[in-house]
Amino acid sequence: MRELVRGARSGRLATVDAHGRPHLVPFCFALAADTLYSAVDEKPKRSKRLKRLDNLRANANVSVLVDHYEEDWSHLWWVRLDGLAFVVDGPEERDCAIRLLQVKYEQYRQEPPTGPVFGVRIHDWRGWAPSKAEATSLPAE
Predict the structure, then answer these.
(1) Fewer CB within 10 Å: N-end or C-end of the chain?
(2) pTM of the model
(3) Could you tell me what percentage of the chain is helix, strand and coil, using 3-state DSSP and rounding each to the nearest 5?
(4) Which residues pair with 113 in a beta bridge?
(5) Distance between CA atoms of 90 and 140, rounded to whole angstroms?
(6) Chain centroid to CA 55: how far?
(7) pLDDT digit string (tens) for 44-77?
(8) In a 3-state reduction of DSSP, which class is residue 124?
(9) Which residues of 93-116 are buried (b: 16+ CB within 10 A; e: fewer)?
């Protein structure tokens, strides 16, 4: 599962606002052990103050869904990661997260994200793939 998530180009981040309303957005991320990192990048946005950041500050419990679909259903898979989100405050962890994102995404090498960085400390991995062994095994880091 870990390698499927590590290689995925995007996922969907589910947060909940202070009133319990769900919010789901696609996002880019990099995986380091049991922590996912993402950053507010330079793609056009109305504001760098994003609802997902407000939500995770109000309720740190989040879910991430990473999946793959194609017409040949023997290649389908999904992984859901549940964890606690946090805004990265320290410059060392922020720099590390940005480097991980730059390794994964050419766009971030060309234009490094300047907005806030957040992480998700994953406490639960769940998934499915046609092969039970592929879906349930978590390779050691």
Answers:
(1) C
(2) 0.86
(3) 30, 35, 35
(4) none
(5) 27
(6) 15
(7) 455 556 788 999 999 999 999 999 998 988 889 9
(8) strand
(9) bbebbbbbbbebbeebeeeebeeb
| C-beta separation of 88 from 13 below 8 A | no
Considering the domain delimited by 2-130, tell me its CATH architecture: Roll (2.30)
Parallel, antiparallel or unpaired: strands 30-32 and 35-39: antiparallel
pLDDT in tens, 95-107: 999 999 999 999 9
Backbone angles phi, psi at 33, to 5 degrees: 55, -115
Break the chain into its structural domains and give their ranges. Answer: 2-130
Alpha helices (H) in 14-136, listed in sequence order? 51-58, 91-104, 106-110, 132-136
Tell me how long the chain is: 141
Cα separations in angstroms, 60 against 64, 128, 138: 13, 25, 24
Lookup: tokens for 8: 């995925």
Q: What is the rounded CA–CA span in Å between residue 138 and residue 10?
A: 20
Question: Which tokens is 99 given?
Answer: 């480097």
